[in-house]
From TrEMBL:
UniProt entry keywords in alphabetical sequence: DNA-binding, Phosphoprotein
Protein name: DNA-binding response regulator
Species, as recorded: Amycolatopsis vastitatis
CDD domains cross-referenced by the UniProt entry: LuxR_C_like, REC_NarL-like
Every Response regulatory domain range: 14-131
């Protein structure tokens, strides 16, 4: 009974939304505000720069963080915020369930990773749990992280010196390149110019000391980036 009283008297968890799609943010905000008093949305942002400024201003307990955005990604927000606000907890909320995305954002400091197929009630529970110190993952995604830390043959390494040389955007370009996307398609997918794609590919080739996209595809496949 005492636990029930304590839960009912608990202050709502302050949440900040980061996603580059305004309609998605509006939908999440409406859902969270309408179904529960356990969380309260205190702000939102559609870019890395807006997120950094908004989080610093509102000081939420939990940030729901998109993984891919045109001007960077969730990992970049984490890198810029965590040194200044180490108590803020980040929960990735993404359409992607790719192993490299999960591992990259967890390495950057997120406390969990759920996909956008999650129900509103499940999302509320996930937010409350990470605010309380738990780690939360959608089904099967936890396996990527366990594999990464297990250091087993065939697992995605949590520390890969060669992979660490690449910026988040270079990894995005490399992943799409390895999946067979043309430069124009990569540019459209990432909201950048074809020339910028070419620049990123050249940089990846230089850093990996490889000579063509076919070698890059094999390199990416070996690291489970595809």
């Amino acid at each position: 009974m005492l636990d029930d009283v304590t839960d009912n008297q608990r202050e709502p968890v302050k949440v900040f939304l980061v996603d580059d799609h305004a309609l998605f943010r509006a939908g999440v905000r409406t859902e969270l505000d309408s179904i529960t008093d356990e969380v309260r949305v205190v702000g939102e942002a559609g870019s890395v720069a807006e997120a950094v400024a908004g989080i610093a201003r509102t000081k939420p307990q939990v940030v729901l963080l998109d993984v891919h955005m045109p001007d960077g990604g969730g990992a970049e927000v984490l890198r810029r915020i965590r040194p200044e606000l180490p108590d803020v907890v980040f929960l990735a909320l993404s359409v992607s369930d790719a192993a490299e995305d999960v591992i990259a954002v967890i390495r950057a400091g997120a406390r969990g990773y759920v996909t956008k197929t999650i129900s509103s009630k499940e999302l509320v529970r996930a937010v409350v749990r990470v605010a309380d110190g738990d780690a939360v993952f959608s089904p099967r995604l936890a396996g990527f992280v366990l594999d990464a830390f297990a250091d087993r043959p065939g697992s995605a390494p949590i520390n890969d010196p060669e992979l660490d040389l690449l910026t988040p955007r270079e990894r995005d370009v490399l992943r799409l390149l390895a999946r067979g996307y043309a430069y124009k398609e990569i540019a459209s997918e990432l909201f950048i110019s074809v020339k910028t794609v070419e620049t990123h590919v050249s940089s990846v080739l230089r850093k990996t000391q490889l000579s063509n996209r076919y070698e890059l595809s094999r390199w990416a496949s070996d690291r489970r980036l595809v």
